[in-house]
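Good day; I would like, with your permission, to put a structural problem before you. A protein sequence and the structure tokens that stand for its backbone fold form the material at issue. The record follows directly beneath this note:
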Amino acid sequence: MSPSPLSRRISAISESATMAVDARAKALKAAGEPVIGFGAGEPDFVTPAHIVEAAVAACRDATNHRYTPAGGLPALKDALADKTERDSAWRPEASEILVTNGGKHAVYNACATVIDPGDEVLLPGPYWTTYPESIALAGGVPVVLTTDTASGFRVTVEQLEAARTERTKALMFVSPSNPTGAVYPADEIAAIGRWAVEHGIWVITDEIYEHLVYDGHEHHSIRALVPEIADTCLVVNGVANTYAMTGWRVGWLLGPAHAIRAATNLQSHATSNVSNVSQMAALAAVSGGLEDVVMMRESFDRRRRRMVEMLRSIDGVELMTPQGAFYAFPDLSAFLGRTIAGNTPETTVDLAALVLDEARVAIVPGEAFGAPGYARLSFALGDDDLGEGITRIADLLNG
């Protein structure tokens, strides 16, 4: 007898393209191939020493060997309130904070908390691969709004209004952006926030790249710019990218107390508390200074400028200079339908496979982000690998 079918909702989830590319690159590297990976979005730095030491001390404290409140350690919530006030110019109460198992978990909790089956969620594209999946898992319908290099990868209020229907429940908003590196100026963020308030639309805003901005661009929290959005705004953040802590799995969700209470109830049944050791490490991170963050940002900036220069030297590549995060998002459509190394890629999925097979360089095709013709390359890797990787791509595409 054949097995019973799996849940349709779970079966419909797409594999994470970024993780798939990274896994294949690592498998080839483990087999002895000289693969250079631009795929995974994580800092190549080690977690700062004082954070690691805080975790070591937490391991030795028997208090951390037991269950703790599902919504997060009170001391970490207090520190997150201070950190939000310092970095985002508004201060949440403890009842407005939920500590989650990383930023992805915060996104999932946010969608599950406010979206009902059939609700439409406006999703500016290109988008991070997890957003549409979390929306769909909640029964929502992602409504993708297209942006491109010419628009600076920023959506306008006019686009939002044109897409709004009676079923529009929420807007997924992110600045700085993964995958494009776009950063919205304060006036545009404020206009979008006021539009959302006017129409009673929830805003789920991801601020995890808040400290990674360049060339004078600044991060602005929509919650601070538009205080009246407080009752319909959920803010996602985490320690992963700011403090080189991707593996520690600590994020948080900020929002109105009634929504956070509901999300905490969900989490209490799904995962209970985040690892206490990781929470204590996060406490050391967010309550400390930003010296390590500044150092990492300076390194990312240097690599960013080099990657932009090298990519633009490839005839046919169009590229907006990334303003934030640690990704470049070049338009590679000029190479589609062109014969390269005896192959003729028709999509950027084909092109990315060709680049990996022929140049042993891993990039993520734009289809993963709802942007065919583009590709995402992370510059969160060593300078030597960055230079060698782009050189290999250039030799292949210009050969």
